[in-house]
Design goal:
It is built from four helices and three strands, in the order ααβββαα. By secondary structure, it is of the alpha+beta class. It has one domain. The longest helix has 15 residues.
């Protein structure tokens, strides 16, 4: 048995359990296949950006809302540090 790996797995579990305190997203890009096409959603410098027309005029869209829900507590939600 590789006890070093067991230790790493235990540490990884702790990071997952404590993710809201330990992990902060700085930037990422996601492709979402929607009902009306494929859209690119990005998070960078604590701000969201989506290439869909709705986001361009309103600053929010279903793609962003979905990702905020998936990553709840990991990235700013509506009205948080944006």
């Amino acid at each position: 048995m590789d006890y070093g790996m067991v230790s790493k797995i235990e540490k990884a579990r702790r990071y997952v359990d404590e993710r809201e305190q330990r992990i902060q997203f700085e930037s990422f890009a996601v492709v979402i296949r929607g009902e009306n096409g494929t859209h690119r959603l990005m998070f960078e410098n604590n701000k969201w950006q989506c290439d869909c027309e709705y986001f361009k005029t309103r600053g929010v869209c279903s793609h962003r809302i979905a990702l905020e829900r998936i990553l709840q507590g990991m990235v700013p939600g509506p009205g948080e540090s944006e």
